[in-house]
From TrEMBL:
Pfam families: Abhydrolase_1. The keyword Hydrolase applies. InterPro entries: AB_hydrolase, AB_hydrolase_1, AB_hydrolase_fold. Gene3D superfamilies: alpha/beta hydrolase (3.40.50.1820). GO terms for molecular function: hydrolase activity. It comes from the Bacteria. This is Alpha/beta hydrolase.
Length: 280
């Protein structure tokens, strides 16, 4: 029997507090499953199949749609704290008592909060293309990035602009990513709604309100942490990753060259190897 891959993993559903969470589960092995939290407006299909399959080759991987996003029912969270609580509810519904947690972008905001309010749940933490609450440069996105990120009908060009560096080499890797993430044809997830987009941007803005004292929250993260980032992220400043690395007690950082927001989609094999080594 052929192994289940990102392209063939069935969409499943589990209920918690009246919300029907859409999720996919694939891979085997490893001491605990790796739960992956998606970026702004992203759904199950917005993950890079090359990244997910390389991670799932060594461990169980769980992907999920947040409430009110794509195929999950419920009301989308308007704050990161609310989103983190929804993620915790999902893990309880699946019976997951101990997880590794990877959060990308907005998912990284939620992952920080999950690690802080439910430390016994998170064994190891991976923060990719993200930043800390209240840090400089976190209060929303610059105008050109926001225009592409909030497009009513996002295009490949919007993703290339947001996710990849404005170099020929990075954009070429971006085009390869677009081909991979569009390759699944059966049981594709539905697009996120404009209402969920607006709720999530409320959460992004609330998280980023300048608040120097909020940075001290990072010192409370108990889980060993791996921080992944591109060297020229125009959506969430790369310096925010260095700030997190300095404040989280047990943190290490990896910066990928010639890369922007989605370095883990530009370097899926390298990122998966770094994550698997860290989790292993």
């Amino acid at each position: 029997m052929a192994p289940v891959t990102h392209h063939t993993a069935p969409t499943r559903f589990v209920e918690a507090d009246g919300v029907r969470y859409a999720y996919r589960r694939l891979g085997t092995g490893g001491p605990v499953p790796l739960v992956m939290l998606q970026h702004f407006t992203g759904n199950l299909d917005n993950w890079d199949p090359a990244l997910v399959d390389a991670l799932a080759a060594e461990r169980e991987v769980v992907l999920v749609d947040y409430p009110g996003v794509a195929s999950s029912t419920g009301t989308p969270a308007k704050t990161v704290a609310e989103l983190a609580r929804q993620v915790i509810d999902f893990t309880v519904a699946l019976g997951l008592e101990r997880i590794d947690l990877l959060g990308f972008s907005l998912g990284g905001f939620a992952a920080q909060d999950v690690a802080l309010v439910r430390p016994r749940l998170v064994r190891r933490l991976v923060l990719a293309g993200t930043g800390p609450k209240g840090a400089p440069g976190m209060h929303g996105w610059r105008e050109d990035i926001e225009t592409h990120a909030r497009a009513e009908v996002p295009t490949g060009e919007d993703l290339l602009y947001i996710f990849f560096a404005p170099t020929e080499t990075s954009r070429a890797k971006g085009v390869e990513f677009l081909g991979r993430f569009l390759a699944r044809t059966e049981d594709r997830d539905v697009p996120s709604s404009l209402a969920s987009r607006d709720a999530q941007y409320d959460a992004v803005l609330e998280w980023g309100v300048p608040d120097h004292s909020a940075l001290q929250r990072l010192t409370g993260i108990q889980a060993p942490t791996l921080i992944l980032q591109g060297d020229d992220d125009r959506m969430i400043p790369t310096k925010a990753s260095h700030l997190m690395a300095g404040l989280i007690p047990d943190a290490r950082i990896r910066i990928y060259p010639d890369a922007a927001h989605a370095s883990l989609f530009q370097y899926p094999q390298e990122a998966a190897a770094d994550v698997n080594a860290f989790l292993g």
